[in-house]
C-alpha cells in the first residue's frame, strides 16, 4: 500500500510528534505508517481523514499487485 501521509503532514507543516499527539498514537506509529512498515487500522485511517479534512483514499492507495 502506498500512502501520502508524509506529504499531507508537510503541507500542514506539522511534525510526526504533533500529528501523533493529535490523533492519540506514538510518533513511532506515524513514522511506521509513513515508511510503509505499518498499515493503519480503519479507526486510525478515519482519524487521519477527519484531522486533515480529506478522504481516506487521499492518503492510502493499493499497489497494482494488491488490486
TrEMBL record:
<protein>
    <submittedName>
        <fullName>Transcriptional regulator</fullName>
    </submittedName>
</protein>
<keyword id="KW-0238">DNA-binding</keyword>
<dbReference type="GO" id="GO:0003677">
    <property type="term" value="F:DNA binding"/>
</dbReference>
<feature type="domain" description="HTH cro/C1-type">
    <location>
        <begin position="5"/>
        <end position="59"/>
    </location>
</feature>
<dbReference type="InterPro" id="IPR010982">
    <property type="entry name" value="Lambda_DNA-bd_dom_sf"/>
</dbReference>
<dbReference type="InterPro" id="IPR001387">
    <property type="entry name" value="Cro/C1-type_HTH"/>
</dbReference>
<dbReference type="Pfam" id="PF01381">
    <property type="entry name" value="HTH_3"/>
</dbReference>
